[in-house]
Write a structure and sequence with these properties.
The complex is a heterodimer of chains A (113) and B (391).
Chain A: E1 4-8, E2 14-15, E3 33-37, E4 41-50, E5 62-69, E6 74-79, E7 89-100, E8 103-112
Parallel strand pairs in A: 6-8
Antiparallel strand pairs in A: 1-2, 1-3, 4-5, 4-7, 5-6, 7-8
Chain B: E1 4-11, H1 21-36, E2 43-47, H2 51-54, H3 60-67, E3 74-78, H4 84-97, E4 103-111, H5 117-125, H6 140-155, H7 159-173, H8 187-192, H9 196-199, E5 202-204, E6 207-208, E7 217-226, H10 227-231, E8 237-247, H11 262-275, E9 284-286, H12 292-301, H13 310-316, H14 332-335, H15 343-356, E10 369-376, E11 381-390
Parallel strand pairs in B: 2-3, 2-4, 9-10
Antiparallel strand pairs in B: 1-7, 1-8, 4-7, 5-6, 8-11, 10-11
Helix pairs in contact in B: 1-3, 4-15, 7-12
The chains are: A mainly beta (113), B alpha/beta (391).
Chain lengths: 113, 391
Amino acid sequence: MELYGYKCKKCGHLHYPYRMVCKNCGKNEHNEFDPVPLPRKGKLLTFTILHNPPSDYEVVTLGLGIVELDNGIRVTGQLRIPNPKIGMKVRGEIDVVHSAEYDKQYGMVFYKA
Amino acid sequence: MRNVYVVGIGITSFSRLEYPLAEIAAYPAMMAMKDSGISKIDHLYVANMGAGRINQQTGLASAVIDTLSLTPAGATAIENGPASGASAIIQGFQAVASGMHDVVMVTGAERMREVNNLEATDFVATLTHPLAEYIYGVTLPSLAGMFTRLIMEKHGVTSRHLAMVAVKNHANAMHNFFAHLHQPITIEAILDSPEASTNNPFVAEPLRFFDMCPVSDGGACLILASEDVAKKINRPKIRLAGLGQATDTHAVQERKDPTELLAVRGAAAKAFEMAQVKPSQVNVAELHDAFTILEIVESEEVGFFKKGEGHKALERGDTSLTGKLPINPSGGLKAKGHPVGATGIGQAHEIIMQLRGEAEKRQVKNAKIGFTCNFGGFGNNVCCLVFKREE
């Protein structure tokens, strides 16, 4: 599984998350983006430890952070890092980030690189 | 464009209210009609965020206008996240300024205590990006926690500054009958004493319990009218002189510099320009302190203080009730409460009280120009308003 960025077919600008009109050139017709797998390595820009996660996350605390990937794209993800520090190198894996009764959602989970 | 005046105001207590949502909207509307002597309106705007999701009620405006027996006047509900309140005021302003209507009512209401705190937090979290934020368990407190950590690194803001905002706003709320929290707090109890970590546990590090606004029910109402109507009403003349609204990326991660709140900056600049007022001329302000850090950063972004110096102004006491520019004399969202859809109208209500000179023990002396900042999303949709007292 991959997490995809979306590259504008007109100007090559890469976006995440998906948007329908390019932020850079603004010239797209419908669906003129190529999905591009995002790199997994990056550095931690900021983070929080959430002590009251939403009720269907069955954990006591939930680490959340914004990571700048090696190509400059930023993603929000869950952290499985004991003592996170701003600026630390991290690597991402795609894993279950939320599971409801009949539905699992996958996203980026970060570990210490 | 015609001038628009606030001729009547009303509010409920912000707390847990045991009556239905439509009545939470209608009660302050009745107060505002009494306040202004107006009994007929051209249009009703109802600001609300959660009726469909947490109260199982849609089409709220129809319910409210009929509860008030004001049919067949037009009625529209406005949902714009936590900025619903000021967004509805902007719609009401446009209707009167354009000449389409002479008298409109803008009422906001929220009944969040119908669900527990975790469900209420989850409901507000649905405004985050569904795929890039929400699925990870991102909530508004977690976005605020990540933002706070960056501001601490960049500008030297500490937990002590955040606690100072909470202490100030709790103290102000002691003088506000309608405030949710009538609970004086001290820095010692929430930061320094051995019990501090029990009194004030982490919620979203580095933010703690007393950095968060409470979950409130509540409603507030303004009646807006044209100059001809306002002239006939024997109340102080308060003009809605400037309005600005601006947006930013839906997902916080996409902002070039995530320590900047560009929508706050943009909305404030537009409002000040329209009102022909400089930030330094403002006498009293209500800022959207859903989290203590936001009061500090918004006070910089709207132009009251230089970037990175909001916490220094706070240290000097500039923003306290007797300071140069009192911020959140009502207690702010922190202590007055945050019934999300009603909040922007609640802020305006406080400014009208202040400009009329009716704020009693929390009155800011000689307040002539007031300002509100209503912050939607995590800064992705922001409305700012400037009010002027005219003699």
